[in-house]
Specification:
This protein is of the alpha+beta class. It has 10 helices and 16 strands. The protein is globular.
Length: 353
């Protein structure tokens, strides 16, 4: 059995090795044509979610989680099913919805992490009233690539999360990137929910996978969820587990705004779009924000959530993950891991990712 101290030592050493290894994700250059996303009708923006609606989700009602796994174990398919289950997308859209890039559609693999915000009603039994209580939650899901070349995408996604679904193919079992990604999540102190997927396959052996998870990661077999993202079996347990087992984001709602810049891309019409996680405070359209890395100041022209496309809200509150459009002219100004903060305010930069 891997004891907690031994596990932590192994995780540290694995994460150090990953950090020192030349990162192919930073050196691989994909042709521009393959990196473009095509806006199909279902990928076009939807009507906005109002600021007052978003204000109903304080940190206690928010969960931020990644889906991590070895390549092809079913992360993006599971993400699709969760988006369908919450009504964020319609059923029957075909290939993996969050694999938006041309290269992902052509090759059937994920190369870029994608965030999507979902609204979900969670019902629990109330022993006092002998009835049930239902509360609404805002869930931010980040689908990550499983291929080793893109592991940097996983590390930076985890920086915006408090938990992760560790998906393992029920027939293949634990593989190289299962181990590497488990260590990344473990070292980031995330709550890890094991999900044994593809249980519909004739060669599925969930008991063997449970034994592997126990032996390698000291995960209690009873914690594993058994799912088939293909048939839908077991999926109804996933979001209740996310709410019950993953902590809400920490952060101070009353402090000046401080946010982590997770990713950026250039849109022909809107300019630079930054993905951010709000750590403290709130950011509103019209606010002035500064970059801790460059010292430059920008005005917030648009802000919103990925629901699952750009959906303006006019504001993002503590613990929420979304996008911001400022006057940045080039993605070179948007440094991944930078702390963006309220202009003319001195803040402590967030830990480097
Ligand atoms: N039989 C079966 N096939 C599945 C299931 N979930 C996913 N698949 C299939 O497995 C293949 C890979 O699925 P993806 O969702 O793209 O896997 P992924 O983990 O996102 O892959 P990368 O992002 O490239 O690492 C696809 O052909 C899916 O249709 C499942 O529960 N059962
Ligand atoms: Mg994928």
């Amino acid at each position: 059995m891997a004891g907690a101290a031994a596990l932590r030592r192994a995780a540290r050493s694995a994460v150090r090795k990953l950090a020192n290894a030349p990162s192919p994700s930073r050196t691989i250059v994909l042709p521009e044509r393959l990196l473009s996303s095509q806006a199909s009708p279902e990928h076009r923006p939807r009507p906005g979610v109002s600021a007052s609606e978003l204000g109903q989700y304080p940190p206690e009602r928010i969960r931020n989680f990644s889906i991590i796994a070895h390549v092809d174990h079913g992360k993006s398919t599971l993400a699709d099913r969760l988006l369908e289950l919450t009504g964020t997308i319609q059923k029957g859209h075909g290939a993996q919805y969050l694999d938006k890039l041309q290269v992902e559609k052509e090759r059937g693999i994920t190369v870029k992490a994608q965030t999507a915000t979902m609204f979900y009603k969670h019902t629990v039994e109330n022993p006092d009233s002998h009835g049930t209580d239902t509360s609404s939650y805002l869930l931010n899901l980040i689908d990550t690539p499983g291929h080793v070349d893109f592991s940097y995408e996983v590390s930076r996604s985890l920086a915006a999360c408090q938990g992760a679904l560790l998906v393992v193919d029920a027939a293949q079992g634990v593989q190289a990137q299962t181990i590497a990604n488990f260590y990344l999540a473990f070292e980031s102190n995330l709550s890890i929910i094991p999900v044994i997927n593809k249980i519909d396959q004739p060669t599925a052996d969930p008991d063997n996978v449970k034994a592997q998870l126990k032996r390698l990661f000291d995960i209690d077999p009873s914690e594993a969820l058994l799912t088939s993202a293909k048939t839908g079996q077991g999926l109804s347990q996933v979001l209740p587990a996310v709410i019950e087992r993953i902590p809400c984001p920490p952060g101070n709602c009353d402090s000046p705004v401080r946010m982590l810049l997770l990713d950026s891309y250039y849109d022909e019409y809107k300019g630079v779009i930054c993905h951010v996680a709000i750590v403290d405070g709130a950011m509103r359209k019209g606010d002035k924000i500064s970059s801790a890395a460059t010292g430059r100041t920008y005005e917030v022209f648009d802000v919103g959530i990925m629901h699952p496309e750009l959906t303006p809200t006019g504001v993002l509150y503590t613990g929420q993950v979304g996008y911001v459009i400022t006057g940045m002219r080039s993605t070179k100004e948007a440094r991944i891991g930078d702390t963006l903060h309220q202009a003319k305010t001195i803040v402590e930069p967030l830990p480097v990712i």
